Amino acid sequence: MATGRNHRPATRSRGIPEATVARLPLYLRALTALSERSVPTVSSEELAAAAGVNSAKLRKDFSYLGSYGTRGVGYDVEYLVYQISRELGLTQDWPVVIVGIGNLGAALANYGGFASRGFRVAALIDADPAMAGKPVAGMPVQHADELEKIISDNGVSIGVIATPAGAAQQVCERLVAAGVTSILNFAPTVLSVPDGVDVRKVDLSIELQILAFHEQRKAGEEADAEAASRKGPDGDMPAVMPA
Ligand SMILES: NC(=O)c1ccc[n+]([C@@H]2O[C@H](COP(=O)([O-])OP(=O)(O)OC[C@H]3O[C@@H](n4cnc5c(N)ncnc54)[C@H](O)[C@@H]3O)[C@@H](O)[C@H]2O)c1
């Protein structure tokens, strides 16, 4: 059993590095915004700024796609959208199930961004019998007893876990046994999965903790700078003498 493996370290498709794969959705989001504004071409610098990526890195990333742009013109926006979508497998239909339709699961079910990116929510599953048949985001919630049948009937390979942490491993095992090979886990627990199953974890509290660390460091640096300015060049003397 591999434990909570986030993604394959090796390359996935035609030798594209995993770090490049991780940036492709950022380019796609920026390109989609340009496409919606009917912008025909974009320079590597403009696109890099919009995606929040260094432009040399962007050019290197696009070289893996065989996309080099045209000097003086830039990249064709529509064609890049198509190329990146194809590379990410987004030109296919990916039915997704969400397991655990509480606060978070219901919010995810109502999120329009999945469908617009090719991820069709095929079913909403919950263990609470009182939830069964209740409509959420226009779909009836199905009971967890049906999980295996739902996965097989819909050819689902991606499962989203939004159950309490204590139930997540068991849900994960059922999903995997039923044929799911990619899991997006929102529960705050590390999942054990067999080889060949990819798990990506989303944890907003971890992100906030990282921001808290940076905030603390910034506050420390500001305090140091203030102390240094009070000391002045000769150590104890204030830099600005009080009037
Ligand atoms: N990743 C994040 O950033 C983030 C943010 C908020 C919440 N969470 C986590 O997401 C999870 C859900 O949070 P919530 O606020 O929606 O909780 P919730 O209690 O509102 O909903 C959980 C749902 O899971 C169902 N459930 C329990 N066991 C199940 C099982 N074995 N199979 C199917 N369904 C089952 C419950 O009936 C309930 O409807 C929690 O683990 C929480 O910690 C993560």
TrEMBL record:
UniProt keyword Repressor present: yes
Region (Disordered): 219-243
Binding-site residues, NAD(+): 100-105
Assembly, per entry: Homodimer.
Keyword Transcription part of the UniProt annotation: yes
CoA-binding domain span: 89-190
Pfam family, one: CoA_binding
DNA-binding region positions on the chain: 26-65
NCBIfam families, per the entry: PRK05472.1-3, PRK05472.2-1, PRK05472.2-2, PRK05472.2-3, PRK05472.2-4, PRK05472.2-5
Species of origin: Streptomyces albipurpureus
Annotated Basic and acidic residues bias: 219-234
Identification of the protein by name: Redox-sensing transcriptional repressor Rex
Family annotation (PANTHER family): REDOX-SENSING TRANSCRIPTIONAL REPRESSOR REX, REDOX-SENSING TRANSCRIPTIONAL REPRESSOR REX 1
Keyword line: Cytoplasm, DNA-binding, NAD, Repressor, Transcription, Transcription regulation
Family: Belongs to the transcriptional regulatory Rex family.
Gene field: rex
Entry's localization field: Cytoplasm
Role noted for this protein: Modulates transcription in response to changes in cellular NADH/NAD(+) redox state.
Principal cellular location given in the protein's record: cytoplasm
